[in-house]
Amino acid sequence: MLITLEGLDGSGKTTVWEALHDSHPEATFTREPTESWYGEAVNRAIDDDGADPLATLFLFTADHADHLSRTIRPALENDELVISDRYSDSRYAYQAAALSGSDLTRPMEYIRGIHSAFTREPDKTIYIDVDPETAAARSGSTNQFEDAAFLAQVESNYERLIDAEPERFVRVDGTQSPEAVIDTVEDVVDRLRGSQS
Fold first, then answer.
1. According to the model, what pLDDT value does residue 141 have?
2. Which tens digits make up the pLDDT trace of 81-92?
3. Could you give the residue ranges of the DSSP H alpha helices within the chain?
4. How far is CA 153 from CA 22, 33, 79, 82, 99, in A?
5. How many other C-beta atoms can be found within 10 angstroms of the C-beta atom of residue 132?
6. Which residue segment(s) compose the domain that 36 sits in?
7. Total structural domains within the chain
8. Cβ partners under 8 Å of residue 103, min gap 6
9. pLDDT of residue 195
10. Which of 2, 8, 165, 191 is buried most, with the most CB atoms less than 10 Å from its CB?
11. What is the dihedral of CA 98, 165, 73, 25, to 10 degrees?
């Protein structure tokens, strides 16, 4: 089973991901961008406010393809629980927002079309929900992807994804205390694991 954690920067999903290491030590934990050289290239692009958004998309896509072949598919073939901090939905939400002023008329559809040929959809996606202003304040707005106005576009894209596949997404209120958010997500993962056995 592949469970992904999604949300705006500052939503608390990485904190939750780290806490799940203790409650589900049997799982394979991974994240995007990865720690491969593809992921390093992605992080360089994130830190470069002048990076071309289309070029950045393809760096993210290359990192995702490598992540699938090296980590995700092998773990799933071994019947492991895989929990990923960010995955393809981050691409659809964030890169579609980054490309909103480009020549692409429907950036999200374009990005999803690229991925559809090779990606592996998550079984469930836990979306930790906070508003863009809270997310920007928590994340510190250290780069172009953490600005409140940009995050508002990202939030809108996530809502489109959730509306399209409501059965895949589990929404968790990220404005609760960190402990409450962790408890809620752990309960969700436990239920999902129970339904699989």
1. 62
2. 999 999 999 999
3. 13-23, 37-46, 53-67, 73-77, 88-90, 96-98, 107-116, 132-139, 148-164, 178-196
4. 34, 21, 36, 29, 11
5. 21
6. 2-196
7. 1
8. none
9. 74
10. 8
11. 100
Regions of the chain with pLDDT less than 70:
141-145, 196-197
| Cα separation values, 187 from 63, 132, 134, 135, Å | 30, 26, 25, 24
CATH number of the domain within which 167 lies:
3.40.50.300
Q: Is 9 annotated as a binding residue?
A: yes
Bridge partners of residue 84, in order along the sequence:
4, 30
Q: Annotated binding residue at 13?
A: yes
What is the pLDDT at residue 144? 66
Residues 68 and 57: their CA atoms lie apart, in Å, by 16
The answer to whether 124 is annotated as binding is no
Beta bridge partners of 169: 125
Query: DSSP code of 168?
Result: T
Contact 8, 130 (CB under 8 A): yes
Q: What is the pLDDT of residue 58?
A: 97
Contacts of 182 (CB under 8 A, 6+ apart): 15, 16, 19
- Whole-number pLDDT of residue 78: 97
- Closest by alpha carbon to 85, among 25, 29, 165? 29
Give 170's strand partners: 126
Q: What are phi and psi of 8, to 5 degrees?
A: -70, 155
Whether 105 has a binding-site annotation, put simply, is: no
Q: Smallest Cα–Cα separation from 112: which of 55, 171, 64, 155?
A: 64
Mean pLDDT of the chain: 93
